[in-house]
Amino acid sequence: MTDAAVRPTTPATSTRTPVGGAPTAPHSAAEAAEARIDTERVTDLLLGTWGHIRREAREMIKDPALWRDDSLGMDAHRERTLSQLHLLVQNKAVHRAFPKRLGGEENNGANIAGFEELVAADTSEPWPVSVIANAPGISRLMMPGSHLS
Questions:
Q1: Whole-angstrom Cα distance, residue 104 to residue 43?
Q2: What does the domain layout of the chain look like in residue ranges?
Q3: Which residue in 16, 7, 65 sits closest to 37, CA to CA?
Q4: How many helices and strands (H and E) does the chain possess?
């Protein structure tokens, strides 16, 4: 039988990595608690190109003013949704995809990444982000200099 695994030619430097390169199981609680990878680096890689936008959206959604409130009647809910839209505008969450000539960033990838984080926080309808995504006319009205901003 042929062994197709690539084996390192230098000996392992970690006491937990045998010469073959495969890590061994931890032998103590202290060994089990130590990170075997750089978790901050892996997190940054998983968040991707627009990781900073994802982090901003995650911080923004911590504000209770953006949370859903099922106890509201229709008129109160509409008023709250409009105030939530204004909060999104103040935090520049709706400006990313717009052209620079309209005050946007022309950054569609960042727009999708931020939108994804906000929707992942609450996928139920109705929610202001769904208004922005499904009714471009509404978000256009919310641009700086418009009559609603």
A1: 28
A2: 51-141
A3: 16
A4: 7, 0
